[in-house]
Structure formats: structure tokens, C-alpha cells
């Protein structure tokens, strides 16, 4: 029986699940940057991202965070809850880097006096523009209460991830999260991987994430493998 495609993004595809409450999420080997302008297939990338994200989601779930993950199917596929994705990405910044550094003239690696919470509209067509709370509520993407819940969840997830990654010798610089509505609740969806996070080695500041691909700094999958190995050493 052929799978019924529901959605295909830059790094994942989603198919109908075995029932109306679930779907199958499959990671692709495709690496993209600059809203898809730079694109390359990297053999094994999907498996690495799947393994990393599943480990992180498992850790978060053990610590009380509700996620869309139901079970792991194979090396690149997972059965997940069929949530209604809220079309806003929540970005958490612990250290200045990337677009934040470029936009505000702050050197990469500069410590921030407080954790930053940003929102961007989830739209490849528009280039995922930044959007604020009043804009989000004004156009009906999410309610003020939902935004408050997402912010609280994101900050709690940040605390848990920082505590985890300090054990691995990795700095969690920044990351983005996606949430969805399921069963009357807001739950964590999508993935948490080197595609959606900035990971730097705590001693050398070597980049272990998709910035290696964005900036042509070498073998991007070397960093992904390093992140996976370090997570396995503390979680398995």
C-alpha cells in the first residue's frame, strides 16, 4: 500500500499515519540554507538528524515536556501525533550569533544579559520574517494565551537543554522550536537537531551545526556525528 503524502518541506516529509490521530514524519538527506537557495543532498544526514532529535525529544519527555513523538519507526522515520501546527517559529537565543549578530552589530559569541525570545512567521514563500506578539494575535495565527504558553514552554525547554548540553561539552547558542495544537493542548513538534540549533564546542567554539554548511566551513556531517556521539554518551 503506497503512502499518502501530506506535506514535504526542505528537510522532512510527512505522510498519513495508520489512524486519523497520527502521521509519519521522515527525515530527508537534503541540506538547505538561505531559504532553499543553497541546497545539497548529504548521504546519512536524515539518519543523523532523526537520531539526534529522537534522543532529545526522549529526554524532554522524561522531564515532563509533551511532544508529538509517539514512537520511532526506523532510522529516519517516526510516528507522531497529528497536531495542528501553529505557523510561528519560536527562537531562543542564549548567545549572540547568526542573523541577530548581523542585524544588531553584536559580535558572534557575545554573552547576552538575558535569554531572548523571538518569533518568526513560518512561511518559506515569505522567507520566515520576524513577527511580534501583537501582529501574531492581530492576524489570528495564535491567541495571546497560546503565545504565553509557547513562550513558557520554550524557556523551560531551554533550561532543560542547557542542562543537558553542558554535560556534553557543547554550548547551546540558539535554536528554534515549533509547536502544535493537539487534544486541547500546546505540544512540541517538528525536530531539535543541528539543522535547527547552533551548537558550539565548549572549549574551542568549533561549530557543530548547519552553519558549517551555510558558510562552507568543511564537512557538516562531522559535526552532526560529534553531537550525536556526545548525546549518546550521556543519555544511553
Shape: globular
- Distance between the amino and carboxyl termini: 35 Å
**Overall pLDDT level:** 97
Uncertain residue segments: none
Number of helices: 6
Number of strands: 12
- The percentage helix is 25-40%
Largest β sheet strand count, sense and barrel closure:
5 strands, antiparallel
Strand content: 25-35%
Q: List the secondary-structure elements in sequence, H or E.
A: EEEEEHEEEHEHHEEEHH
Rg (C-alpha, Å): 17 Å
Biggest sheet, spatial arrangement of strands? 1-2-3-7-6
Structural class, by secondary structure, is alpha+beta
Secondary structure: elements and pairs:
Blueprint: E1 5-8, E2 12-16, E3 22-27, E4 30-33, E5 38-41, H1 45-62, E6 69-72, E7 77-81, E8 84-95, H2 98-104, E9 111-121, H3 133-138, H4 144-166, E10 170-182, E11 185-189, E12 197-201, H5 211-214, H6 220-235
Antiparallel strand pairs: 1-2, 2-3, 3-7, 4-5, 6-7, 8-9, 8-10, 10-11, 10-12
Helix pairs in contact: 1-6
Summarize the structure.
This protein is α+β, with helices and mostly antiparallel strands.
Key structural traits:
five-stranded antiparallel sheet, globular, single chain, 236 residues, alpha+beta
What does this structure look like?
The chain is of the alpha+beta class and 236 residues long. 31% of the residues lie in helices and 33% in strands. The chain has six helices and twelve strands. The strands form three sheets. It has a five-stranded antiparallel β-sheet with strand order 1-2-3-7-6. Strands 8, 9, 10, 11 and 12 form a five-stranded antiparallel β-sheet that branches. Helix 1 packs parallel to helix 6. It starts with a strand and ends with a helix. The mean pLDDT is 97.
Amino acid at each position: 500500500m503506497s503512502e499518502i503524502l501530506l506535506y514535504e518541506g526542505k528537510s522532512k516529509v510527512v505522510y498519513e499515519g495508520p489512524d486519523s490521530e497520527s502521521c509519519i514524519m521522515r527525515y530527508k538527506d537534503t541540506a538547505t540554507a538561505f531559504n532553499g537557495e543553497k541546497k545539497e543532498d548529504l548521504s546519512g544526514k536524515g539518519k543523523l538528524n532523526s537520531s539526534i532529535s529522537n534522543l532529545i525529544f526522549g529526554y524532554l519527555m522524561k522531564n515532563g515536556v509533551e511532544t508529538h513523538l509517539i514512537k520511532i519507526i526506523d532510522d529516519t522515520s517516526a510516528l507522531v501525533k497529528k497536531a495542528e501546527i501553529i505557523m510561528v517559529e519560536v527562537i531562543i537565543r542564549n548567545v549572540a550569533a547568526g542573523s541577530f549578530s548581523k542585524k544588531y552589530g553584536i559580535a558572534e559569541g557575545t554573552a547576552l544579559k538575558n535569554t531572548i525570545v523571538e518569533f518568526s512567521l513560518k512561511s518559506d514563500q515569505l522567507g520566515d520574517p520576524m513577527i511580534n506578539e501583537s501582529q501574531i494575535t492581530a492576524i489570528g495565527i495564535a491567541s495571546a494565551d497560546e503565545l504565553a504558553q509557547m513562550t513558557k514552554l520554550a524557556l523551560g525547554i531551554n533550561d532543560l537543554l542547557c542542562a543537558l548540553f553542558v554535560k556534553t561539552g557543547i554550548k547551546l547558542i540558539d535554536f528554534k522550536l515549533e509547536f502544535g495544537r493537539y487534544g486541547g493542548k500546546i505540544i512540541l513538534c517538528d525536530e531539535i537537531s543541528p539543522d535547527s540549533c547552533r551548537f558550539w564546542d565548549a572549549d574551542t567554539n568549533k561549530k557543530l551545526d548547519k552553519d558549517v554548511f551555510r558558510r562552507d566551513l568543511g564537512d557538516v556531517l562531522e559535526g552532526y556525528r560529534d553531537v550525536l556521539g556526545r548525546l549518546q554518551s550521556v543519555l544511553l
